[in-house]
Every structure is written in C-alpha cells, then in structure tokens.
Amino acid sequence: MSAPPKRPPSIIAPSFTSDVTFSTLTKPFELQLSHLGKTKSSSFSIKSETSVALPPIKTTDSSGSIDEPTDQEESKLKKTLNRVKSIAKSAFLKYWFLLGLVIAILLAWQFPNVGRKGGYIRAEWSIKWGAVVVIFLISGLSLRTRILAQTLLRVRLHLLIQTINLIIIPFFVFGLILLFFKLHMPVNSLLLIGVVIAASTPTTVSSNVVMTKNANGNEASALMNAALGNVLGIFVSPALVSYFQGPLLAASPEDESANTAGGSVDFIMVLKQLGLTVLLPLVIGQAIQILFTEPVAKFKVKCRLSDVSSFCLLLMVWSVFSDAVHAGSFSAVAGKDIAAVVILNFLFYVLFSAFSFLLARLPYSKRIFGPLKWLERLRYSREDTVAVMYCGATKTVAMGVPLINVLYQKGDPGTIGVLSTPLLLYHVEQLILGNIEVEILKKWVSRGQKRDAQKVQDQAAGIDDDEEGQQQTSSTSTTSVHLNRDEENAYESGVTKIEPYQSQHKLSF
Q: What are the transmembrane regions (predicted)?
C-alpha cells in the first residue's frame, strides 16, 4: 500500500500585530538606490493607532427614527436668542424712562402710604425738595457754557422760540379749554385745567436737545433755549397759571372750589420756593461747570448724571401719584377722560410742531411771487428750524410737577396728582412723537445740506467757466489783432491772400 502523497510545506501567513514593519520588503528598493548613492535609512511602517475621521453615524432607535446632528440647530437657536437679547437691551436703554413711569404709577397705586405726603419716608422733604434740587443741580452741570455763549447773541431766534413756547401755546390752549367749558364737554374739569397748566410750563431741558442733535439740527440753539426757557419759566409759568386760574374756575361746569382746584396764589412765596429749588441749584451747577469743566465732563459721563436726573424725576412722579391715590382723587376720573386727554395731547403736539415749522421757514411760492429777498432773510435754516420745532412744542415735567406742588400745596393733596396727569401724558407722547419726527427731519436736513453743497459746486463751476470764457475772449481778441496787423502789412505789400495764416489759427482752436 503506497504512502499518501506528501503535502507541500504550507505557507504560514505572517500575523499582523499592532505594528507591521515592511523592512524586509523594502530591502530590494534600498539596494537599487544604493548604487545611485542614495540609501533609505528608515523603514515604512503603519500604525494601527492612526485615527481616521469618519462621518457621524446615524443611529436608529426602536421606533425607527433617525437621530440627526443638532449642532446647526443649536447654533441657530443661540443666534436667535442673542438677537432677541440685543433688541430687548436696546429697547430698554431707549425707553427705560417710559417703563419706569409705568412702574412708578403701579407702585403708587399699590403702596400709596410710602411715597405720599406725611408717609413713611416723608416725601414732602425727601423727594419733593431733595429730588428737585438734584435734578436742577445736574442740569446746571450739564449746560455747556461755551456753547451757550456762542448762541447768546441770536436774539431773534431765541425770541421766536420763547414766544411760541411761553405765550402763543399757553393762550391758545387756555382759549380752547374755555371753549370746551362753555360747550359743556363731557371731560373731567380738573384734567382740562391740568392741560392748561401743562401748556404753561417751559420747554424740556434734555430731551429736546437730544432729539435736535439726532435730527442733525442746531444743538447749540436747542441747548440755549432749554436753559433760557427754564429760567424764564420760574417767573412766567406761575404768572400764567395765576392769570388763567380765575376764568377757568368760573367757566367750569363742575363746582370746583378754591381748595380743590386753585385759589389765590401767593406769587412771592411761589417765586421764593422755585428760586430755592430750581434757580439756585441751576446757578450752582453752572458755576461748578465753569470752574471745573474737564473733571465735570468726565464725572458726568462716568456717573451717568442724565440717568440720575431721570430717576429723580420718576421719584417725583411716584410721590405725586401716591398723594392722589391716597386721597382718592382718581375715583372721579373715568377711562374716557384719560383717552380724551391722550387724543388732545397728540393733536396739540402735531399742531404746535407744524406751527413752529411755519413760523421758522415762512414758506411761499417762488413761481408766483418770485424770489423775495426780505422774506429770505427772515427764514431760518433747516438746522435752526429743527431746534425751533422741538423747543417750541415740548413741555417739561421737571419744572411742571414742582410748579403744581408749589401752587396747590395748600389745597387737597390728591388734586395735584390729577392736575399732573395731562403733563405726564404729554411728556410720554412728545417722547414718542419726537423720536418719530427725528427720522423725518434728519432726511429733510440732509436733503437741504446736499442741495446747498450742490449750489456751492455750481457757483464754483460758474466762476471757472467765466474765467475760461474770459481767457478765450482775450485769445480771440489777440488773434484778431494779429490778423488786422497782417492784413495791413499785406495791403501795404500788395499781397491780398493771407489764408494760410488764418487756417493756422483755425486749427489751433
């Protein structure tokens, strides 16, 4: 029996460990390179630990749904949240005073015993004196003396603004409210009297300056008239309210006694208190600003004095409404009365702004009347017109609320809150409407500036054209002189053709 055939020796495959070296396989290549003078000293190896980036694996759960990567969705969500935060932050920084006004009224409504006269914090001293002094001290520190001095001599502009703000508007509103009383309009009489008091106050200290600057208007004129108006308002506003008070009470269809809505005003006492709380802090702040201009400017920015002033104003509003709620003065004020005052204030602001614009620009048709030089001299620039509109139509709460407190301090404390309501509503509405006007007036001023720049360029181009024309005229006259002389020489020499010379001059032009 034959033996089984021998199997060929099996080729055992090398076992690949974690590190596979191909040194034996690369020796022939090393030998081939050696005769060229080149050697390969290192062996080629592959590491198993080498990581390879693989795409994310989609996994399925028991329900069969696929889990997608959510990095993009999370980034979109973060961007949306950041955008919402930035919008909310900008809106808060822009309208925080309005929000604070709502909070102050709600606090007064819920906790009237805290901020009322004779309450827990003795608001008649801590707020109605302290807050007013702080407000006008900051106003004095904020008024830039150099800018005031630059616009001090523009008497006609200042006279126009103060006439609109302290004479035309108060008497117009006074006559209109008298007409409402005669017609027995179904609106609370105290609110209508408060509308007249609001019209009798001077222009604002800060908001009109800021809005004038944002609309590319004349900021210096706005600042000067804000300071001038508040100084004049110390004397003019009490006189106007005292003059209007008697006819308004007589014409009121409701039985408003002197203790609730007015009475005799001690003018000397009013001037004394307003002088101590308004004028004296204003003068002290201005003196400090003159002596220490640079430190005051840095301190004003670092401590945000404008926001401190607005916060003190909110404290005054809180105290005034606390008195009114504690006395129950708003029980007789219906929602329709507040709505009527809101609509009335809206119409007043639009009307006063348009009236200020007409007086400042004095519009007329050049096609019909032609260019009237005397009327052009009376018209103000677009930048000045913006300042006239804002300073003429706006009214101040910082001066109005202390004025009402002083005028009616002997009467019912709750009456002050009702009388202050139209002024507070007007302040809110003028901020909203004024910011809407900013964009419109800014475009209007920009168009005027572009038109003026174009006129200057056209005039400069006209001058250049005139000079070029004069040069051409002089060269032509010189040429004609040469031609005349050549003609004379040709005539004397008997030659009549000088066409080549003439053609040379024709070609030169």
A: 92-109, 129-147, 159-181, 187-210, 222-244, 274-293, 305-326, 338-360
Flag whether 131 is in a domain.
yes
CB 165 within 8 A of CB 236: no
| Nearest-angstrom CA–CA distance, 321 and 98 | 15
Question: Does residue 87 belong to any structural domain of this protein?
Answer: no
Contacts of 446 (CB under 8 A, 6+ apart): 216
111 φ/ψ angles, rounded to the nearest 5 degrees: -130, 70
Residue 19, beta-bridge partner list: 47
Radius of gyration of the chain (CA): 42
Residue 342's SS3 state is helix
Distance CA 185, CA 191 (A): 12
- pLDDT digits 0-9 by tens, 282-332: 889 888 988 888 888 888 888 888 788 888 878 888 888 888 788 776 777
Is 143 a residue whose pLDDT tops 90? no
**Element spanning 208, H or E:** helix 207-214
CA angle at residue 346 from 344 to 352, to 5 degrees?
95
Quick one: which of 421, 416, 419 has its CA closest to 405?
A: 416
User: Is 283 among the domain residues?
Assistant: yes
Q: With contact defined as beta carbons under 8 Å apart, do 448 and 382 qualify?
A: yes
pLDDT single digits (tens) 258-291: 445 555 566 777 778 778 877 888 889 888 988 8
Q: Residue with structure tokens 């031609």?
A: 483
Q: How many domains does the chain have?
A: 1
Asked if 206 contacts 142 with a C-beta cutoff of 8 angstroms, the reply is: yes
116 contacts 123 by C-beta, under 8 angstroms: yes
CB neighbour class for 165 (10 Å; exposed up to 12, middle 13-18, buried from 19):
buried
Beta carbons of 391 and 166 less than 8 angstroms apart: no
pLDDT at 55: 53
Q: Quick: pLDDT tens for 1-31.
A: 455 555 555 444 444 444 444 444 444 444 4
Handedness of CA 308, 312, 313, 315 (dihedral sign): positive
- Closest by alpha carbon to 423, among 405, 403, 400, 455? 400
- CATH code at 404? 1.20.1530.20
Contact 147, 220 (CB under 8 A): yes
Strands 45-47 and 19-21: antiparallel
- Cα dist. 460→285, 403, 454, 466 in Å? 48, 56, 10, 10
CA distance 109 to 89: 27
Domain with 264 in it: 121-363+377-445
How far is 370 from 465, CA to CA, in rounded Å? 27
Inside any domain, residue 406: yes
